[in-house]
Design a protein that fits this description.
The chain is α/β, with parallel strands linked by helices. Helices cover 29% and strands 25% of the residues.
């Protein structure tokens, strides 16, 4: 898949912009600098791929704004080999960033159209998450729990209990909470029953949908 010198130059400018906006994690910035975001979007939007904006993808969803992807990734404090559960594979872009940061990624998507598309796209780009799962993100993925981190990439009206239960002690859950606008929220598991909560201002996401069944 094509990745021209022009694409690479635009990515470098995007990384500079993210640094100006406060992203300091070099691991995050290096991953974003390497990943051809234009390949995760419809060709009609390719000219906008390296703007710091969200754009529509299939099934009424969006590819998140690069700053949002970077911000969530930075909050995770990813270490090489961390086992991370992503709720909402979407375009696969956030998943790709985590993979390039050295994480072992399990990612759940409930929209079959996106699940199929991303399952084909990521290997073509040389990106190999541990497992892509077609299923209900509210339930998490108990089979591989506990996780070092869990990231939710859609707006959740509440924190699903199943996700809290699948987090290691010391683990981090990054989740945008709210109906129309969301507050980016970080929960750190202190022990079996206690979580430390931090809030990081307003973001806007598509809603986290529950299983139709």
């Amino acid at each position: 898949m094509k990745d021209t010198a022009k694409h690479q130059g635009l990515r470098r400018k995007l990384v500079e912009l993210l640094e100006q906006k406060g992203i300091t994690d070099k691991n995050v910035l290096n991953a974003i600098n390497k990943i051809p975001r234009h390949n995760f979007m419809e060709s009609t939007f390719e000219g906008f791929a390296y703007q710091d904006k969200a754009f529509p993808i299939a099934a009424g969803q969006t590819i998140s704004q690069p700053y949002t992807v970077a911000f969530q990734s930075q909050l995770l404090e990813v270490k090489k080999g961390d086992k991370i559960l992503e709720i909402g594979t979407g375009s696969g872009y956030q998943c790709a960033v985590l993979c390039l940061m050295g994480a072992t990624v399990y990612s759940i998507e409930r929209q079959n159209e996106l699940f199929k598309k991303t399952s084909l796209l990521l290997p073509k780009l040389g990106i190999r998450p541990k497992k892509l799962i077609f299923g209900d993100g509210y339930k998490g993925y108990e089979t591989e729990a506990p996780y070092d981190s869990i990231i939710v990439t859609a707006g959740a009206p509440f924190i699903p209990e199943s996700l809290l239960g699948q987090l290691k002690v010391g683990g981090r859950l990054v989740i945008p909470l709210g109906e129309n606008e969301q507050i980016m929220t970080l929960l750190i598991r202190k022990n079996e029953t206690q979580f430390e909560k931090h809030e990081f201002g307003e973001f806007r996401f598509v809603p986290l949908l529950e299983d139709k069944n």
